[in-house]
Amino acid sequence: MKKSKFLAVFLIITLVAGTFTASAFAANPFLPQWERVPDGEPRVFTDPVSGEERLYVYGSHDSRLSGYCGPDHVVWSAPLDDLNDWRYDGEAFHVDQLNGVDYVDRDGVTKQLIVDVEANLRVMLYAPDVVYHPENDKYYMYVFVDGMWHTNPDPPPGLNRRRHPMFVLSSDSPAGPFTDPKFVYLAFDPAVLVDDVKNEDGKSRVYLYWTPEESRNIYACELDPDDMATILPGTMHTPFSETAAAPKNTMPDWDAPFHMFEGSSMRKVNGVYLMAYCRAVRPSQTSTVGISEIGWAYSDNPYGDPALGSPWTFGGVVVDNRGEEVANPYTGATTYTFTGGNVHGGMADVNGQWYQVYHRSTNISSKRQAMAEPFDLRFVDGVPVIDQVEMTSQGFESGGLNPFKEQYAGYACYVLPASGNAAPQFFSQNNDSSINFDPNATRDDWYPVMNIRNQSWVGYKYFDFGDGIGAGQQMKFQLTLKESLAGTVNIYAADPKAKFTDPEQPKTLIGTIALSGGDSSVHMVEGAINAAGLTGKKGIYLEFLSSVSGREICQINKLQFVKTATHLQINPSVRIAMKLKDSYKLDTSTDGSKYEYSSSNPGIVRVSQDGLVTAVRAGQAVVTIRMADGTGMVSSAVVKVTP
User: Fold this and answer.
1) What pLDDT does residue 358 have?
2) For residue 17, what pLDDT is reported?
3) Other CB atoms within 10 A of residue 581 CB
4) Are 627 and 566 a contacting pair, CB within 8 Å?
5) Res 436: pLDDT
6) Which residue, 524, 513, 420, 505, is CA-closest to 461?
7) Are residues 635 and 521 in the same domain?
8) pTM of the entire structure?
9) Pairing of the two strands 508-515 and 554-564
10) What's the CATH number where 587 sits?
11) How many CB atoms neighbour CB 415 within 10 A?
């Protein structure tokens, strides 16, 4: 067919504002979908190579096929000015480094740790902590091992056979490798604070906190800053419940209001000592129910010792990895909005914004992922105040996720039912021999929310829709998924809550997608969205319905909102209004022809050869579209960019 210079071409404009590189991530979970770093301790350190300040996250590593934690500690970090740009810094420590290292057992006898002489004697590494000591100019990693059942089978009366030798290692870099292990104590979940208060030798004082297996409380002591391992005599402080240890029974226990369980993490702010910890509120003191809250307490001294100042005061809860309590939309019964579980993490101040790092369960065995929530730490008459925050999808993208960028379905923070066999499940890696934690590995980009059945809900808090759509534009919602059953996806939007204690805001139906159930391959489905009022921050909720109950309808992998202005004839020229950092995709391939694109002023508007138009700065430029075979100009578009 002869191509005319004035051929009518229909233009599909798709907004893809806020594009990021494939390696960029900051939503919850904020590390790659395949990574599993629970018990995260965030620390701001200086990269010794680049000299830039970075946020380093240390934690356990759920790198085994089954069971919590693994034999290694890995490190991830990001520059403080771009918490989208997480970098894998490598393995900092492996448990094999402890094989044959001396430790002192409960009978007072020095023994050598046996790590992997036989496969069943390999021990795992649980939650570490890392600190920097300014006078020593070194970084110190505190680690401990689990599974010490094979030594000292006859403990003293009243103590069980299980013990956790704790060691400290050092490095010249915050990323490690950490070497030269020294035994510290039999304890687990170490938390370390290098104080700004100096000792008589002018060195920063160092305090160690930990949990013993028998009592699930917090103990504390002061360490010798010269070796960072020796407990200074007379500094041991024990929990309130240890009355025989008075007057140094000053650490919180698991009774009200503290409900201390494990996982302490220490910070000092404005001269006040802050302790975050796993809080276990439950009807009976067992280790299996309700250990999902990050609680916090404060004191004016590192032990909460009245002899040194004030006792510990319970501050409240920072975040709960069960989400929040809502009414079941079908039964009215009260339910949580996520699968809760053990939680552990620390606080970090990043350029004046505080974040709580913690972890979530994934419903698939012990595969936990790193999460972060911003919170406001303020002081009222010298007293710290933290209001509980929601569990969200945002992570370090605290302004809200970009709805016009493809996002993983696994960023969901709201699922119903929240637990049990019918609950949606979060898939991070194959639970088989193909498990792989090499960041450079070739992977299928498939990390779906699975087990979605009739009356399942999957929700996201929050997306930022900005100004919404413009005149003449429409909006679609796209899901990348595999289907198993015919069903319906109802799409709802709701305003955000102003604070955690507010009730859930009403949900408004904005679209529906029908699923045929006949395509089990990975594909995309989409549906039109009623975008009226869809501006600013919104929670987005997907309700899945089917006439068949008890079976999986689909698995969803990615989702995205798309702004479209369909069938716009661009002959003569049309005008396109853009905001700074917006991008538009020009798709003119309605008849299979190839096109070339150019901009009259790339300093204002850039256009790539695949038709991606990007606003650079305020102004106006003309984007020209030509047929690649040279038969003539098709048309052009005037693009006006505003701040």
Assistant:
1) 98
2) 33
3) 12
4) no
5) 86
6) 505
7) no
8) 0.85
9) unpaired
10) 2.60.40.1080
11) 24
Under a CB-based contact definition with an 8 Å cutoff, are residues 74 and 90 in contact?
A: yes
User: What pLDDT digit, counting tens, does each position of 328-354 carry?
Assistant: 999 999 999 998 888 999 999 999 999
**Average pLDDT over all residues of the chain:** 86
**Residue whose C-alpha is closest to residue 39's, from 130, 174, 133, 163:** 130
Closest to 203 in 3D by CA, of 180, 221, 220, 224: 224
Q: Specify whether 349 is located in the same domain as 454.
A: no
The answer to whether residues 177 and 317 belong to one domain is yes
CA distance readout (Å), 57 to 141, 273, 317, 439 = 12, 21, 22, 16
Question: What CATH number is given to the structural domain containing 347?
Answer: 2.115.10.20
630 pLDDT tier (thresholds 50, 70, 90): low
Specify if 138 maps to a domain.
Answer: yes
Reduce the DSSP state of residue 411 to 3 states and report it: helix
In this model, does residue 168 exceed pLDDT 60? yes
Max CA separation in the chain (angstroms): 97
CA distance to 143, 321, 483, 514, 551, per residue, from 544 (Å): 44, 23, 12, 10, 12
One domain for residues 492 and 612? no
118 closest CA partner among 149, 144, 143, 161: 149
Cβ atoms of residues 503 and 390 within 8 Å: no
- Does 20 reside within a domain? no
Phi, psi of 312 (to 5 degrees): -65, 140
Asked if residue 281 has pLDDT above 90, the reply is no
The confidence band for 291, taking pLDDT boundaries of 50, 70 and 90, is: confident
Structure tokens that stand for 277 in this block: 């910890």
Ranked by mean pLDDT, which of 142-156, 174-188, 233-247, 269-283 comes out on top? Answer: 174-188
Compute the CA torsion angle 151, 154, 156, 162 (nearest 10 deg): 50
Q: What is the mean pLDDT of residues 447-468?
A: 96
What 114-118 contacts at long range (C-beta under 8 Å, 24+ apart), as own/partner pairs, is 114/150, 114/151, 115/145
Q: CA-CA distance, 552 to 565, in Å (whole number)?
A: 35
pLDDT at res. 570: 44
Same domain, 433 and 320: no
Instruction: Determine the structural domain holding residue 78 and report its residue range.
Output: 41-401
Of 401, 434, 451, which residue is a domain's last? 401
pLDDT at position 121 is 54
Q: For residue 417, which of 457, 360, 460 has the smallest C-alpha distance?
A: 457
How far apart CA 483 and CA 461 sit, in angstroms, is: 25
Task: Assign residue 452 the CATH number of its domain.
Answer: 2.60.120.260
Q: pLDDT tens-digit profile of 567-583?
A: 334 444 567 777 776 77
In this model, does residue 274 exceed pLDDT 80? yes
- Tell me: do 341 and 306 sit in the same domain: yes
Claim to verify: residue 383 and residue 273 sit in the same structural domain: yes
d(CA 554, CA 169): 47
Number of structural domains found in the chain? 3
256 & 153 share domain: yes
Residue 613: the pLDDT is 82
